[in-house]
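During the no-cost extension, the postdoctoral fellow (Dr. R.K.) reprocessed legacy sequence entries with the updated structure-token encoder. One reprocessed record is reproduced below for audit purposes.
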Amino acid sequence: MQIADKKVVSIHYTLTNDAGEVLDSSRDANPLVYLHGAKNIIPGLETALIGKLAGDELAVVVEPSDAYGEYNEQMTQVVPREMFAGVDEIEAGMEFQAETSQGVEVIRVAAVDGDEVTIDGNHPLAGKRLHFAVSIHEVREANEEELTHGHVHGESCNHDH
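Re-encoded structure tokens follow.
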């Protein structure tokens, strides 16, 4: 069965950056299982997988525009440390949820300089070219519940089935 919209796809992948550093991998864990065509994975990878079959292996390079977007300097700002009331230690790399005009978003602490904290609302992979080594494990029809909910139910699903 070929990968197409409304199919459940199971893949193993290794994600690297331009320097070849491994950023993420499913190789020593369970495969990534997603509903194709439901925007569960980045567009560039989803497009590259169309028509592929279980057992296929491929290398995919995804430009920022088809991944997490270009890096946007306007999504960074310096805020006073007091905005983090109740947090004793603030360090670069920490992530917090924040209410924004687009709803709840994850912001990352980019830097701490005394009482000034630089926060960054960009995805950590924004502006980066991504390299995927993918092997397709399984392709199957989605069931009605998966189609209705727009994703595959599994261990990480956090709503009632």
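The mean pLDDT is 92. The chain has two domains: 7-68+126-149, 73-120. The remaining legacy entries will be reprocessed before the final report is submitted.
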